[in-house]
Amino acid sequence: MLNFITNEQMRKADEYTIKHLPIRSIDLMEQACNSFVKRITEDISVNEKITVCCGTGNNGGDGLAIARLLRLKGYNNITVIILNIFSSSSPDFIVNKKRLNQLKIPLFEIKKANELPNNLDIVIDAVLGSGFQGTLKEPLAEIIKKINHHAKYIFSVDCPSGLNIDSSKIKKYQGIKADKTISFQRPKLFFMFPESIVSSKSHEFVFIGLNEDFLQSLPSDYFWIEEKDIVGKLKVRQPFSHKGIYGHLLIIGGMSNTMGAAVLCAKSALFTGVGLVTCCVPKENFSTLNISQPEIMTLERENFNEISLNKFNSVAIGPGLGLTQNSKEIVHKILKEKIPVVFDADALNIISEENWLGKIPANSILTPHLKEFDRLFGSSEDWFARLEKARCKAKELQCIIVLKNQYTFTLLTD
Ligand SMILES: NC(=O)C1=CN([C@@H]2O[C@H](COP(=O)(O)OP(=O)(O)OC[C@H]3O[C@@H](n4cnc5c(N)ncnc54)[C@H](O)[C@@H]3O)[C@@H](O)[C@H]2O)[C@@H](O)CC1
Ligand SMILES: [K+]
């Protein structure tokens, strides 16, 4: 698990690594740029026309080093454009400018938008990185507008220029609209939110050699879960074992017009390793289940009151359940049992409609998508506010909240 960190924390990790590894700042920049180049050369061929647009801070220094490293890898069609509009240059920018001069890469310095060429193909955006603060003013705003207009594909270095990654409020975004942002050492929380799409269509990160022990020691409320964090938790099938020892799940859901939701839920449960799955659906829908996934067992929803929940290791209620009076009675009965349950879809809609949030047993799991979440907890100004609300509600209700989206947030109770 990697902790999401702020720009300020990243700056500290940068300083710590330089001091304790030890490594010179210019060499750390070189490492970062090597990682960036390694990643983008998987996407672009040596013949592509590449324009590297640079500011004069360290993000600009990265751009110059990236241009040089690409050239050394055989990318011959590179042009560097330095925006000569900033009051100062960072020391590592100056060193990289000298290094670049030795390679005879075409280099232009511009001050105004009309000095930018129109025929930009692939652009590497290294104008501003994490040092950007405040708002974009002229002539920078116009230059960025022109880059956005003329580029066919934009890779942003670390973050799209003109985006303040630590502020979730981006109304009237004026910065670079990247196709792909490749950030350093950590994913950026902002890119987990749908709102980030105005600044970057996709996002990846590369390791650059910052001190991981220090980074992991930095406080954070949010963590990025990787595949390797999950695989170890899945129960591997043991020799001579059988379905009876891998748990029995009861799913209460599905109606004639929404039986697919119950089927998909059962299939996913079996796929992730549950030994036995029983679906409690209206009797007329048994054949749908039997045809779609023959190993699913069935219980008649009409006889729900006679079912003993104790024989199941876990219970999930909601997918395709419907909002009928009968569905409401079943949700109510489940809530009264006071056992932790997975509440999804219509079960959540019923809970918000009936105002039953306070009745949810501790340690339950709530799996809302955006709209279900807002119905439960009210609307939020933006995704960051929604996430913070989810984190507080998980603690307050002592329930795990799984807020589903392209990136799914799992909010724990502690
Ligand atoms: N995180 C790390 O450990 C590393 C970071 N590196 C790079 O360093 C970058 C940060 O470098 P810097 O701190 O020098 O910052 P930047 O290069 O991101 O920006 C600094 C420049 O932006 C200007 N600026 C700030 N706000 C502005 C505004 N509103 N309008 C116009 N100009 C504005 C400043 O005057 C300054 O010239 C990162 O994004 C990354 O690209 C890498 O070089 C290597 C390691
Ligand atoms: K950038």
Task: Give a brief rundown of this model.
The protein has 414 residues and is an alpha/beta fold.
Strand order in the sheet with the most strands: 12-11-10-13-14-15-16-17
Which fold name fills CATH's third level, the topology of the largest domain? Rossmann fold
Q: Total strand count, please?
A: 17
Helical amount among residues, as a percent range?
25-40%
- Give the CATH architecture of the largest domain: 3-Layer(aba) Sandwich
The tally of helices reads 13
**C-alpha-based Rg, rounded:** 27 Å
What is the terminal-to-terminal distance? Answer: 17 Å
Number of domains: 2
Q: SSE order, as H and E?
A: EHHEHEHEEHEEEHEHEHEHEEHEHEHHEE
Tell me the β content. 15-25%
The helix-and-strand class reads alpha/beta
Give the averaged pLDDT, no decimals. 96
Low-confidence stretches: none
CATH class of the largest domain: Alpha Beta
